[in-house]
């Protein structure tokens, strides 16, 4: 792109374009709107709403409350909601068998949300960790997370969600080949319009801690050989960048419609590289740890909460994101349209 040459000071005073709100808005390069947001939320089996202690302002929803939230999203102009399950301990087992239950929590929530607000997209996590007693994303055998056996379970789970009316399947497990297997299964089932947003570059991050509390995830590394201490053998090494591009390329080749980088703010460099390399709709997940840090700092009076929310979300757009999955979605939408 040809750029105009810069005139020397004082012919060029860049502060002229910052002198008043009207001109700042006129020349703003990045614009954030409610249409850029996917509302991240957790649903539970009980009634009403249950606060999540490590995420002030976030609550688990009952199925009925999820339906109300879908109507709220429609009113706020939020295009989609991503739901994650808090599963009761007695429904968990070593293989996450309840993940594919067509009458399970997620499928019931999807149906209720689509009935309440069919115009709002519903995105479902395709992963076993909320359903396994050990908290890993796959089937474990002798301390190893089995790739292909896990994919078989993920396909069953994804088909159950799609048949319930889920609009976007979002495999977050990081098993090799799972996008292709899901796409083939969807096509075979006649579910041609179901979208896949792959967690294409998901890092083994320290920023997921509050989410694990929110979904009641099993405790990793509790001593059993079938409970490895971390997820480093399947989620990505935070030190790697080139590997992220290979992961994204594979998921696109296997049929992903959109891709995601997770976590968000610590990986904006990865977002930019993915956008420039593939020009495919690319999203970032502002994860639970990012949310908790902002809220904790704001509650201590260390930063302006509203400004920090909008500034971080704008950073994702500036990096090239088509949109952001965030727990701040309704708060941000109200500020943006207020």
Secondary-structure element string: HEEEHEHEEEHEHEHHEHEHHEH
Fraction of residues in helix: 25-40%
Task: Tell the overall outline.
Answer: globular
Largest sheet: 8 strands, parallel, barrel
Unreliable residue stretches: none
Mean pLDDT across the residues is 96
| Cα end-to-end separation | 37 Å
Strand order of the largest sheet: 1-4-5-8-9-10-11-12
Strand content: 15-25%
- Beta strands, count: 12
Backbone structural class: alpha/beta
* Count of individual helical segments: 11
Structure explained in plain terms:
With 338 residues, the chain is of the alpha/beta class. The protein is built from eleven helices and twelve strands. Helix 2 packs parallel to helix 3, helix 3 runs parallel beside helix 4 (147-164) and helix 4 (147-164) crosses helix 5 (178-188). The protein is globular. The mean pLDDT is 96.
Features of the shown structure:
338 residues, alpha/beta, eight-stranded parallel beta barrel, two-stranded antiparallel sheet, 17% strand, globular
